[in-house]
Amino acid sequence: MKISTKGRYALRLxxxxxxxxxxxxxxxxxxxKRQEVSKKYLEQIIAIVNKPDVxxxxxxxxxxxxxxxxxxxxxxxxxxxxxxxxxxPVDCVDQDPIECPRSADCPTLPxxxxxxxxxxxxxDSVTLQDILxxxxxRNADNYVI
Length: 145
Prior knowledge:
Blueprint: H1 5-19, H2 28-35, H3 39-49, E1 55-58, E2 64-67, H4 76-84, H5 109-125, H6 128-140
Antiparallel strand pairs: 1-2
């Protein structure tokens, strides 16, 4: 499984919004500058993740975006599924019932199922707040005199 640039940048966008959650609506140009991602590319990502339960949008001179919920309510898995779709390593793991005629005798199917379970459980266990907390901890340990 390889996460696309769109998925990685969507995660960075959401982390940036979480970091600046107390500043109201954040313009894309500000996120673009901080994240060193073109505004045009962020507009494409916003079109994917801008859902009522994910983001709030405000148009006009005070326009921008902010999280619809607390950073602790967003998991990395949820964010990546918006841009990537399934996070399964192979298509058959997402099928119910599995359409592959070899599934009953497939020796690798349990491997793919277990890998999918591990990846999804891990990504669903990490929230934006966890990422912010870890970043704050790293920054606290990295002081200069």
